[in-house]
Design brief:
Elements (H helix, E strand, L loop, with lengths): L3 H19 L35 E4 L5 E3 L4 E9 L3 E8 L3 E11 L7 E2 L4 E5 L11 E8 L3 E3 L2 H4 L32
Antiparallel strand pairs: 1-8, 2-7, 3-4, 3-6, 4-5, 5-7, 5-8, 8-9
């Protein structure tokens, strides 16, 4: 019984992953920080960062400890610490998209392999990783298969409220249509 349960959980997640990969990705996402309104968001995608990197996500500023919630349903594929993102959680969702939440002050309950629904609590806004010394915020990234980043801002802000509406997803590298400077969100 002890050995069968983990295998059963892995099979359930494998089935969910296969279904999620073929489900259409959401075209609009809720803001993943409690108390932050759409009009409070700023498109920080593509900004220059240390080492010549480009910002592969947006920063959502909020008071330390505000709830960070799942913007899409899926299962947790990563939870831990990395040099740039500090405490992070990664969720695999529909359309084979991966949602990356970084600079957390603390985690909530979801562990790797756990299923989350939209609005489930993942953790709390902070300044971990390379955000130490900055105002508390969530770094929110969206990645396609192959770790190619897309701009999450247009997914969070309806087109009618987006400056330059109609531009769609703005890539860091316009020749490739997405940023591919790194193979892992942990390196961003």
């Amino acid at each position: 019984m002890v050995i069968v349960w983990p295998i059963r959980c892995q099979l359930i997640n494998a089935g969910r992953a296969a279904r999620l990969a073929f489900d259409p990705a959401p075209i609009v996402l809720p803001v993943p920080v409690e108390g932050v309104k759409v009009e409070d968001l700023e498109d920080t995608w593509g900004g220059i960062r240390s080492g010549g990197r480009h910002h592969e996500g947006i920063d959502i500023f909020a008071p330390r400890g505000n709830h960070i919630t799942a913007a899409a349903r899926g299962f947790v594929t990563g939870r831990g610490w990395n040099r740039l993102g500090g405490r992070f959680i990664q969720v695999f969702g529909a359309g084979a998209r991966s949602y990356y939440y970084a600079h957390l002050d603390a985690f909530d309950e979801p562990e790797v392999g756990d299923w989350v629904e939209v609005g489930d609590l993942l953790g709390y806004v902070g300044t971990s990783g390379n955000a130490n010394g900055t105002p508390p915020h969530l770094h929110f990234g969206v990645y396609l298969i192959g770790s190619r980043a897309i701009n999450p801002y247009p997914l969070l802000v309806p087109e009618s409220q987006t400056p330059g509406a109609g531009e769609g997803l703005r890539p860091v590298d316009s020749s490739s249509g997405a940023s591919s400077s790194s193979n892992s969100p942990a390196d961003r």
